[in-house]
Amino acid sequence: MVLDDAALKKFGFIPRKAKDAINIDPLQTGGKLTEEASRALLEWGDGYSVCDYCDGVLDLIKKPPIEEFVHSALPEFLNTDVARITHGARESKFTVMHSMAKEGDYIVLDELAHYSSFVAAQRAGLNIRTVPHSGNPEYKTDVDGYATVIDDLIRETGKAPALAQVTYPDGNYGNLADVKRISNLCHRYDVPLMVNGAYSVGRMPIDAKKLGADFIVGSGHKSMASSGPIGVLGVKEEYAGIVFRKSPTHKNKEVEFLGCTVRGAPVMTMMASFPHVVERTNRWYDEVADARWFSSRLEDLGIMQMGDKPHNHDLMFFEAPVLYEISQAAKKGRYFLYKEMKQRKIHGIKSGLTKYFKLSTFQVGRENLKYIADSFEEIIDKYQKMG
After folding, report:
1. d(CA 173, CA 139)
2. pLDDT of res. 361
């Protein structure tokens, strides 16, 4: 079949509509490329670029210094024994689940885990039990619930689960669970713990060993200023031989990665941004201060922040009855907020959301946050006067 010109014209270069807006989308704030990464994207964008330098094991390429990055810099950054780059946080989670558990085994997830954690377990043929949270308004993961769930599984099945996972922070409310306590509880039963740090690795200081994590997962395109998809995986030495096992037929190929990790532009942009990413984690407490300031401003307007208070992360979830009430009478209905924000060049709150929404203040800056808070106030005043 030959495509006609009309069909082909739909493709080619497509500009991004929200590129110049202030971005508060939690999926995007930590993944914005540095200037160095933007240059690397152009330089290494060809599909074969990195493979030109490979002698059979991509993460052992010496020039460019992928080997040093993967086997030295990245483990030091995470404070873990061994590390790899992957095709994303969900691929990292699946790699651990698939290698550490057998089909039919149980694993334990926090109830607030990202959907991809559930799907990864399902793809690996695993059964899932969840640890509950406290519900509205704090949504705190029940730390002691890990012991309760593990005890229940041992009583029902005769053995402990193959793996437990905690999301740090969770992707809805931005809560930071007490990972060290969870780790201590899990290790009492010899259950290894995986920490999903998709919204923490690259944003805030992370120390896998202090957390007691046997595995730690990160997202390059969410939180490490990298073009995606790309992720990172840190593994305790005790489990490295299991997770990174080699093929019996192709001796230098690691089975869980289908013989090759991330190649091309994603890994080069991650390395290009890495000095900046390391440096910005040292300024994490400024980010927390900005998030708390912004939360306070919105709460003064009747937009209430759910989750931990005082908040300890840039990702926040809000309940906004004042905006929902406006949407019931506004000409543009539940889309009024998105359109008002778009007019002010603010991007990140999903179209159609007014009563509940989440956002991120990461790397936005106090001046822009003041503009955003003022915009919420202007919008509320505008429609209340109209009403």
Report:
1. 7
2. 98
CATH architecture of 284-386: Alpha-Beta Complex (3.90)
Q: Which residues, in sequence order, are bridge partners of residue 108?
A: 129, 164
Give me the phi and psi of 122, to 5 degrees please: -65, -40
Q: Is 71 annotated as a binding residue?
A: no
Residue 387 confidence (pLDDT): 65
Token pair listed for 34: 């540095």
- Predicted confidence at residue 149, as pLDDT, reads 98
pLDDT of residue 332: 86
Would you say 89 is a known binding-site residue? yes
Q: CA-CA distance, 237 to 213, in Å (whole number)?
A: 12
240 marked as part of a ligand binding site = no
| Per-residue model confidence (pLDDT) at position 41 | 95
Whether 299 contacts 291, CB under 8 Å:
no
Alpha carbon distances (Å) from 114 to 106, 172, 189, 313? 18, 9, 25, 17
Amino acid 1: pLDDT = 62
Single-letter code of the amino acid located at 175: N
pTM: 0.95
Q: Residues 128, 149: contact at Cβ < 8 Å?
A: no
Predicted local distance difference test score (pLDDT) of residue 362 = 98
The residues spanned by each domain of the chain are 35-280, 284-386
Which residue has tokens 């299991």?
Answer: 242
pLDDT of residue 15: 83
State the pLDDT at residue 385.
85
When the candidates are 1.20.1050.10, 2.40.420.20, 3.90.950.20, 3.40.640.10, the CATH number that belongs to 35-280 is 3.40.640.10
Whether residue 196 is annotated as binding a ligand: the answer is: yes
Instruction: Tell me if 221 is assigned to a ligand binding site.
Output: yes
Q: Residue 65 corresponds to which tokens in the numbers above?
A: 């210094």
> Does 21 belong to an annotated binding site?
no
Low-confidence spans in the chain with pLDDT less than 50: none
- Tokens (6 digits) for 93: 């989670």
